[in-house]
Design brief:
By secondary structure, the chain is an alpha/beta fold. The protein has nine helices and nine strands. The strands form two sheets. It has a five-stranded mixed β-sheet, with helices on both faces. A four-stranded parallel β-sheet has the order 7-6-8-9. It is globular.
Length: 308
């Protein structure tokens, strides 16, 4: 392709003959998005997620094939999707693997998208330089990595009010009723490196006294719409064969009122989690805690006596 004919943007291509309607097996089956990479595959996974978001009425299965290191790995990934309702999304730096994947997709009549091939070729043509053609390095086992691991372990150890004596060692403490996303938030915040404990508000049971003795700035309350919480609890009660009262609205309203009273006693900010993704809620929590700690330090500095 000459300089006057730029490479096309990446599009989903089909290995099926152009102009013929491909026979898609099991139209009621989920669409499989196969994410293939000779690195971690995070780039392709993000593209797959963006594609999913454009089809809210479709069910997807994302199947990841990271760390491709041989032609056999490429063959295995393509064979897994063969004859299925699948799309191959790949970030393969190695040109041999890319060509092999493209050929297999055409042979198996699979739709596919090469996310790196066109951009690498285009930049090489424009710059006159040769790409180094090395997959991304493995994540470093550095201090930040071990900090995340320790924070995740902390979240598991101090989940759901277990061992309240550990609250003082937390970076963040979440307080809310059952099924208000405390545990998944604690784990996700741990992944981000924040040691997070959570304390449940249970109707008729007083929270542990340690909760009222720790640094107030790190406490964040969680609340949720009563009807949304009822639906979540009904699903869980059916799965666990639990008591129906657990999901009844009148019980939930009473729990939420008790939680609101505890939040007022703590003087903590409260986040309404209904309809919020875990990621968005977590980042709101981090902003709140960091801002409150900064405000507390500024207040302490202002009130400190100055030497003559």
């Amino acid at each position: 392709m000459g300089a006057n004919h730029p490479l096309p943007a990446c599009v989903f291509e089909s290995g099926a003959t152009v102009g013929r309607a491909a026979t898609l097996p099991g139209m009621g089956d989920p669409v499989e998005l196969h994410v293939i990479s000779d690195s971690t595959g995070e780039t392709a996974a993000k593209v797959a997620k963006a594609v999913e978001d454009q089809f809210p009425d479709l069910t997807f299965d994302v199947i990841r094939h990271p760390r491709i290191t041989s032609a056999d790995d490429v063959q295995l990934a393509a064979s897994r999707a063969r004859g299925r309702r699948a799309v191959m999304i790949y970030t393969l730096v190695d040109n041999h693997y890319r060509e092999s994947m493209r050929a297999l997709c055409k042979r198996y009549k699979l739709h596919y998208c090469d996310l790196l091939g066109h951009p690498i070729d285009a930049v090489a043509r424009v710059s006159g330089l040769t790409a180094r053609m090395e997959p991304g390095p493995r994540p470093a086992l550095d201090s930040a990595y071990f900090k995340r691991i320790a924070a995740i372990e902390f979240a598991v150890r101090f989940d759901d009010g277990v061992a309240a004596h550990g609250l003082d060692g937390a970076d963040i403490v979440l307080v809310g009723v059952s099924r208000s996303s405390k545990t998944p938030l604690s784990i996700y915040l741990g992944y981000l490196g924040y040691k997070t404990a959570n304390v449940p508000i249970v109707r008729g049971i007083e929270p542990p006294p340690e909760l009222f003795e720790i640094e107030p700035a790190k406490i964040v309350g969680l609340t949720i719409d009563a009807e949304a919480l009822s639906e979540i609890r009904q699903t869980r009660a059916r799965a666990m064969r639990g008591p129906k009262r657990y999901a009844e609205l009148i019980e939930i309203y009473e729990e939420l009122e008790q939680a609101e009273a505890v939040h007022r006693r703590l003087g903590c900010p409260v986040i309404e989690v209904s309809g919020l993704a875990i990621e968005e809620t977590a980042h709101r929590i981090i902003r709140l805690v960091e801002q409150r700690r900064l405000d507390a330090r500024d207040a302490a500095r202002t009130s400190a006596p100055t030497s003559a």
